[in-house]
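Honest question from a wet-lab person: if I give you the sequences of every part of a complex, can you actually get the arrangement of the whole thing, not just the pieces? Trying it with mine:
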Amino acid sequence: MNWTLALPEIVLACLGMAILIFGVLRKQESTQHATMLTIGAFLIVGFLIATRQTGFAFHGQFVADAFATFNKELVLLGGSLALILSLDWNRSQGIARFEYPVLVLFATVGMLVMVSASNLMTLYLGLELQSLALYVLAAFARDNLRSAEAGLKYFVLSGLASGLLLYGVSLVYGFSGTMDFQALHAALMKPAAAPTGLIVGVVFVLVGLAFKVSAVPFHMWTPDVYEGAPTPVTVFFATAPKVAAMALLLRVMGTSFAELVPAWQLLVVLMSIGSMVLGALAAIGQTNIKRLMAYSSIGHMGYALIGLAVGTSDGVRGVLVYMVVYVLMTAGTFACILAMKRDGRPVEQISDLSGLGTNDPGLALALSVFMFSLAGIPLMAGFFAKLYIFLAAVKSGLWTLAIIGVLASVIGAFYYIRIIKVMYFDPPAAAFDRRPPALSFVVAATGLFTAFFFLFPAPVVDAAELASRVLFR
Amino acid sequence: MMNTAGFPLLSLITWLPLVGCVVIMCVRGDEETVASNARWTALWTTLIVLALSLVLWVKFDPREAGFQFNESIAWLPHYRIAYKMGVDGISVLFVLLSTVLTPICILASWETIQTKVREYMMSFLILETMMAGMFCATDFVVFYMFFEAVLIPMYLIIGVWGGPRRVYAAVKFFLFTLTGSVLMLLALIAMWLHAGTTDISVLMETRFPVSMQTWLFFALFASFAVKVPMWPVHTWLPDAHVEAPTAGSVILAGVLLKMGAYGFVRFSIPMLPDAAQAYAPLIYTLSIVAVIYTSFVALAQEDMKKLIAYSSVAHMGVVTIGLFTFNEQGIQGALFQMLSHGIVSGALFLIVGVVYDRIHSREIAHYSGLADRMPAYALVFMVFTMASVGLPGTAGFVGEFLVIVGALQVNFWLALLGGLGMILGAVYMLYLYRRVIFGTITHANLRHILDLSPREWAVFAPLIVLTLWMGVYPSSFTTFFDESVAAMVRHHHAAIASTVKLAQGMPGVLN
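Yes, you can. This is the full assembly:
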């Protein structure tokens, strides 16, 4: 059985239940403690993951390898950042309930399972565990109409995507007789002999997962959910689940269907181009910064998909580096958005940032670092993320994709620098409220990473290199 | 890691401004204290950097054609990218140009910038780091990072401290330049994958297949042509210049435009010799259009800054002609013209800044008869007008003369049409000078205008000295790049000869 390989997930699930009981018994004022305990649980699990050995467990349904370790740590990082950012916000918005950290925790368990899935069944199990927790989280501010709408919208569309995925899984199983990634890989060694029904199944699986990473044309839910959900939930949505879903996509395509690259490459290329272009163009007209970030994340997933479209371990490495940088700069940007409060009420319009350079130079500096980084301007981390992706694309001769990608990044730069324009060039508006120290901490930490990644890129790149060797062998 | 200086001189020159930046960031106190401290810290930092770069000037060995003061630190060993610094005869003087102009800019902004002084000075220090780093980089990736990162401080300088249409100008500047740059990024990656390294000196020795060269050439061209700027992608320049604060214009004209031409001379010509040779006529055409067309446009301008901005496009047209003649005179002349244009156009923008600070108008029609009230100003203006026109004895002459000599060896018409720029330049510059300086004072607020202050003298004095020095004794500058240019020209002709030989030996192979 080798079940100890799954110890991190088991421990996290048990800790989650313990925190749930703790919350129920303490009742009043337990949110703060529950959140702290959850972050503690993440730390313990992070340590456990780092010290695990590699191999298969549960008769090949569960895999622990360098790729899984890399993505799990990243998921935990995203989850922890989202939790830290939720602390003060939830209290001030009157949605401080101990269920919040517990739900985040269970969603994270689901993601860890997703990342380690080595069987289509495990994949679906992890995905659903994650999704169920996320539905509730999106509607967490239940008295708020927009939040309830976001939850419902996400539930309906995500349910549809899960259905498509499941249909794809059944097709794959029906035409190949196995759900095991390794067995599928072995069965598909001769891609020419793959039955058409199986290819259709692969397409359905791809579509289902594309929904989770919000790639065009399955992105429709993203802007509404990002805008409607409480901002800390949006932070969570934008970081950890994206990592998990992208890892899953890479895992499925990079192991079981690795030999079928020519069959699905065009599909991924089109999704990638669509995401990049739509992310760049649709964001221009936005006035709400959370919506803008939603389109921005669609665009970024488009860039990450280039790495998948390439279909080599070079591409995977690019995606992994991209995701690390993406998680940290996105969390930092949202931390800045969380700081946008006047008289205790959150404000979300881009014009509310007007004159931030005068009112709060520190925050404005950090936000401009994130914006330049999101735009991919050198010396910021975002540039390196794009560099590795384009490196892989050019290496494989995907010139069209690379050229469209860089041009879309120029269009994207327009709206990122517009935010900097609002902050620095426009006359000052009323100042924001004092921001809590936890927020400043996250802004500073992610900002320093984003600005000074260029000094020490090697650890992240080396780890990504190691992790990427597992796929597309 | 060790080099001729015994310590990492180039890294010090590059990164020291950032140290000044951190110091400025730490200053606490009321607004006045912060502003004053920021100014002095910025000035001292840039002066120390200038002193360090003078060490470079003294210790540089002009008999050596290759890179000197080399530094190398492993950065991304898997990808064979290292942080590599070094200067050769071509780049060393541009490092100096950057370090000379920055303190002058700080000094020129001493009184004019009164809002957000701290951020302003920080932007200039960051800009200096990026400029110096770009000219020192001997690794393509490092070069690219500095090349593009220049956009960040410049965008802020134009957008925060600029004129009424600053937002439009800043965004236009940013997007134009970025579009070119990202295409260069793809070319960079393609060259990297082909050669397996991004070391510039290795890339220079790498022969890229001719068909690949064409694509690479145009990708690089997209980036450098926007930066130079060449006609027809020059339209961002007048906007950026007009809206930028005086010091911003100085850096823009003085150093940023040179980055494009430097890119041609560092990458396009030595690394892609066949494509450069094949598409030289295209460059000639665009340059001649730039020289003649923008000269006429300059003649029609009502705004002094815009006039000088258009004259910059014309002068840079001469530079690109010189670079693509592929002979020693042409390239030397182009390099010399880049240096002299850096000094002279920078000075001209400062001259506009002087009256703009006093009257807050750049309209040519607003001024007349300044010679009456401002004799010293008229004198300084005269020196730089003459230098811009290319009067013998000033910096402007040597470069244009050499370029024409170089162009004559290529084609008579090229030399003739390129040389037209000198005549047209005389027309619009003298016309400008006459309208602003001579005549009678018509506007009331000009009657009590003050002549140059000691601070302004301190700004102009070094520029005047340099302009005359470059005009009277150009050898002290040309000796720096003699060897490097000669090596480059030899390298180019050898490469072309080998291609021709190859084509003759194996017909059809090169398609």
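Two things worth pointing out. Chain B has a mean pLDDT of 86. The first helix of chain B runs from residue 9 to 26.
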